[in-house]
Amino acid sequence: MERKRTPEQIVEVGIQLHLAGLSLSNIKQHLERLGVQRSRTAIHNWVQKADLQPTGTRSSNYVALDETVIQLGTDRYWLYAAVDTKINEFLHIRLFPTTNSGLTHVFLRELREKHDIDDATFLIDDADHLQAALSRLGLRFHVRRHGNRNSVERIFLEVKRRTSSFSNTFSHVEPATAESWVEAFAVWWNDAKVNTTGGARRDYVPTTGRITSR
Questions:
Q1: N or C, where is the chain less crowded by C-beta within 10 Å?
Q2: Domain span including residue 46
Q3: CA distance 104 to 189
Q4: d(CA 187, CA 18)
Q5: Claim to verify: residue 84 and residue 134 sit in the same structural domain
Q6: Per-residue pLDDT of the chain in tens (214 residues, 90 and over written 9)
Q7: Distance CA 34, CA 23 (A)
Q8: Burial label, 14 (beta-carbon count in 10 A; 0-12, 13-18, 19+)
Q9: 29 and 74: one domain?
Q10: Are residues 31 and 109 in the same domain?
């Protein structure tokens, strides 16, 4: 990742601290206490180059589906997310430049490739494009504003809190960079859920290389 190779465990620590909410400056100071001198840019690049994404195939009975607006400088993008309401974990997450039934169909097709959702019931709001895309794929859905669907709303609130707290994360970045961050956040969120509920510790599986969480 750099001319002077950073030990994998140090990279892992930096990624986890960044996704957990620490600023790049605070992470830099923490690593310096461990005897590692790295720039804020290098730490930021670790997350991008790891290219973390939620992994693992599962079958879900209820899936909360929604989107929210993420501000990238002066532009607005829509963050789509599908959440397993039973365990409150991300199944899939993507960032799009707009929201419509066509892009929703793309998102659902990608979700179907990763997980067994054909028998799931999707919990959505009354947005026409969500209903149109689900109907096109023959997937069941219920329009619901409360109850289990609130799981995706709670996660979105946390994503917005994190992105707004990092003034240097989304100020002047390309959409692909922001999408890499939210995908990595989804991995961190799912892993943190497992650890706090006493489940088996899972690995971070990047699409290029491998960063193993221990």
A1: C
A2: 8-50
A3: 23
A4: 13
A5: yes
A6: 444 578 777 777 777 776 665 667 777 887 887 778 888 778 767 766 665 565 555 667 899 998 988 877 778 889 999 999 888 888 999 999 999 999 999 999 999 988 889 999 999 999 999 999 999 999 999 998 766 667 677 777 877 777 665 444 566 667 877 787 788 788 778 877 544 444 443 443 333 333 232 2
A7: 17
A8: buried
A9: no
A10: no
Shared domain for 74 and 151, answered yes or no, is yes
List, in sequence order, every residue forming a beta bridge with 96; answer none if it has no partner: 78
Tokens of 32: 């310096």
Q: What is the largest CA-CA distance in the chain?
A: 56
Here the CATH number for the domain that contains residue 112 is 3.30.420.10
Same domain, 102 and 147: yes
Residues 91 and 157 in one domain: yes
Q: Using CA atoms, how far apart are residues 173 and 151, in angstroms rounded to an integer? A: 28
Interatomic CA distance for residues 43 and 11, integer angstroms: 8
Is the same domain home to 45 and 67? Answer: no
Count the domains in the chain: 2
The two three-digit tokens of residue 11, written as one number: 């990279």
- Kindly state the helix (H) or strand (E) to which residue 61 belongs, with its residue range: none
Cα atoms in the 13 Å half-sphere on the side-chain side of 21: 8
DSSP state of 134: H
